[in-house]
Amino acid sequence: MKIIMLGAPGAGKGTQAKKIAEKYQIPHISTGDIFRANIKNGTELGKKAKSYMDQGQLVPDELTVDLLMDRVKNEDCKNGYVLDGFPRTIPQAEALEDALNKTGDKIDYAINVDVPDENIINRMSGRRACVKCGATYHLVHIPPKTENICDNCGSELILRDDDKPETVKNRLGVYHDQTQPLIDFYTEKGILKEVDGTQKMEDVFEAITALIN
Ligand code: AP5
Ligand code: MG
Predict the structure, then answer these.
(1) Taking a C-beta distance cutoff of 8 angstroms, is the pair 113, 199 a contact?
(2) Does residue 171 carry a catalytic annotation?
(3) Which structural domain range is residue 88 located in?
(4) CATH at residue 196
(5) DSSP label at 161?
(6) Do residues 139 and 33 make contact, with C-beta atoms less than 8 angstroms apart?
(7) Ligand 1 close to Cβ of residue 71 (< 6 A)
(8) Model pTM score
């Protein structure tokens, strides 16, 4: 099963993608997580990506498309995957479709997690992520058992560099300009599914599994 998660920054794509990956035993592939890992390891790609990410801009398609295409060729993707944060532009969606067409494959579902802009800024300022395993929490909605400590691995939780309110506003603008058009793109392909992302995390997940089954 091949799934794309769509939605604004902070809509809960990552939160839901992790649960989907676990339930359906497919890899969760987040281009944002891949870029952040590269930044942490000080790679050339990380240096280039950081300058865009810190401003809330998209990393150019030239750097993103090949990275994703290489990742989905891995052996662990043979039964499918859940993509989180890719595609984010029409050229990225077209590149993915071209690559899949060549092998007679297709995306099964594009799931749009719908959350209005008003809710987003609050979610982002409360988000905390584990420096080590990448698990995400929310100070109010999904708090860790011990303050600032990851439930999974005991490491420290941090606020992401791009979650400052000013940067979040830029990210929302970029989302509406460049990523929202993908909703029409996948509607025309007949694979778009909508879920109300303002519900409780468990209810969003239940809505998603109901759509898939
Ligand atoms: P990326 O890491 O993909 O960030 P994003 O799309 O902005 O999305 P987020 O990860 O911020 O939000 P999310 O939807 O995953 O929400 P989450 O589940 O964490 O990309 C970062 C940057 O990398 C981009 O700005 C760009 O520069 C670059 N990039 C990445 N991919 C790219 C591409 N393809 N092309 C070009 N550039 C690219 O949830 C958010 C918070 O809300 C958490 O605290 C969570 O606990 C909480 N929460 C989740 N669900 C609920 C709920 N139901 N109720 C209450 N709280 C909830
Ligand atoms: Mg995410």
Answers:
(1) no
(2) yes
(3) 2-27+74-212
(4) 3.40.50.300
(5) G
(6) no
(7) no
(8) 0.94
